[in-house]
Description:
Layout: H1 2-18, H2 27-47, H3 52-57, E1 60-85, E2 88-115, H4 118-125, E3 130-131, E4 137-139, E5 154-179
Parallel strand pairs: 4-5
Antiparallel strand pairs: 1-2, 2-5, 3-5
Amino acid sequence: xxxxxxxxxxxxxxxxxxxxxxxPKSQADREMLEKEADLTIQKFKAADPDLQKFFGNSAGYAVxxxxxxxxxxxxxxxxxxxxxxxxxxxxxxxxxxxxxxxxWGGQAFSEIVFLETPEAVENLKYGKIKISGSVSAxxxxxxxxxxxxxADHVAVFTLGEGGLMLEGAVGGQKFSFRPK
Length: 180
């Protein structure tokens, strides 16, 4: 199992280097990604029903059903998802992460990035939102969202899928958007 995540980590590096496409290529892949995003929303709401306030009050949000992360001193991650504005899908979003420091292993997780204002939505669309140390991801679990508020008009929640990652690194997360 650990070797699978190391292989995934290597694939992440190659995908980042190759320049991934934000939108899925085929109609079937786009439909599959939308189904995965819907299922991811259901999983997050089941893990923490209080997240409903973020879904109801945000100007927009990006749902990334699966982000694969790997690292060995240098780290990287990649994931693709759906961008929503006022609760409706408006396009595709992908994210790349880069880290440097003490790290080893690989993991997969889901992420939802809530955007508090219309300006924050526009900033994500035009690649102006980069998440660093000022915005922390919160693990979605019962009651976790009660103590969370937006930082710089952004709130990030994650839900682990599996893997093992030991990490003491710094880095950032960048987004790309493509309309439907």
